[in-house]
Specification:
Number of strands: 12
Largest sheet: 6 strands, parallel
Distance between the termini: 25 Å
Number of helices: 11
Helix content: 40-55%
Length: 287
């Protein structure tokens, strides 16, 4: 369908299920675009231009193209900007030409996807710019829309950020509820070590939890909801033994000060949880 690929993500299945949802496949009376099929002649052709209406960092154009190709394998598509590019309002992003019915049926699914992913990439770029610290890495979290994690984390990378763990499988993250069950920070970390887990991120929200976590074998400390003076104290106590990550209470106004404390990472949940959709349009004309 396209050369776009992400490990663990089935683009064809995503496109098919998204289109099926819009077409009502499997529902009584569903399975077609009643507007396009009744109004647009079967052999009509359209040409169109997708453009940015606001300044943004672009992500998801190859995915959008896959929607059009799914319904019109002969569609002609020209992607005009690279993924991750920062563009000004009015920038043309994609040109396409093909069967009018197919393009209209795929339009909303394609736009929804590229608007959402570009919105994430744009917010990430804003945070990277506000952080203004090449020695600190901006991370996302697992606060993603179900079924869209791979795409959303891809968009984070296109905006200049990096990915935290991809899911529950690739690292242990010991948080307050895990600690409550295990009774202490040290005991929670020890259990993960004994289970053979290699990457063990341990959340601490007090200075006195740092040494027990490190002594038990934590490989990264997540310093949760700490203000800059406390973060600096925590970084000094860790003294380079493991990477440190600041999390909680981080926004565009606070990120620079928190990153400047010497932490290696800053993680922000709203990058994927709350990014507004980018204003991207698609205008068609009859050939």
């Amino acid at each position: 369908m396209t050369d776009f690929s992400l490990p663990g993500f089935d683009l064809s299945a995503f496109v098919r299920s998204t289109l099926d949802e819009d077409l009502g496949v499997g529902l009584p009376g569903g399975g077609s675009d009643v507007t396009a099929s009744s109004v647009i002649p079967a052999n009509a052709r359209f040409s169109g231009v997708m453009d940015a209406r606001d300044a943004c960092s672009v992500a998801g154009l190859p995915v959008a193209a896959a929607f059009f190709r799914a319904l019109d394998p002969e569609v002609r598509i020209e992607i005009l900007v690279e993924e991750g590019a920062r563009v000004i309002p009015g920038t043309d992003l994609m040109r396409l030409e093909g069967n009018a019915r197919a393009l209209l049926t795929a339009e909303r699914s394609a736009l929804n996807t590229v608007q959402h992913l570009t919105g994430i990439a744009t917010m990430v770029r804003e945070y990277v710019t506000a952080m203004d610290n090449p020695d600190c890495t901006l991370l996302d979290t697992r606060k993603t829309i179900p079924g869209l994690r791979m795409l959303e984390k891809y968009a984070v990378r296109m905006g200049g950020g990096s990915n935290h763990r991809m899911g529950l499988w690739d690292a242990a993250m010991i948080k307050d509820n895990h600690i409550a069950v295990a009774d202490t920070v040290g005991e929670a970390v020890r259990r993960a070590v004994e289970a053979g887990v290699e990457d063990i991120i341990c959340e601490v929200d007090r200075i006195d939890q740092i040494e027990p976590a490190l002594e038990a074998g934590a490989t990264r400390l997540l310093l949760d909801n700490m203000e800059p003076p406390t973060l600096r104290e925590a970084v000094a106590l860790v003294a380079g033994r493991v990477p440190t990550e600041a999390s909680g209470g981080i926004n565009l106004d606070t990120i620079q000060a928190k990153a400047a404390t010497g932490v290696d990472y800053v993680s922000v949940g709203r990058l994927t949880q709350s990014a507004p959709a980018a204003d991207i349009g698609l205008d068609f004309g009859v050939l």
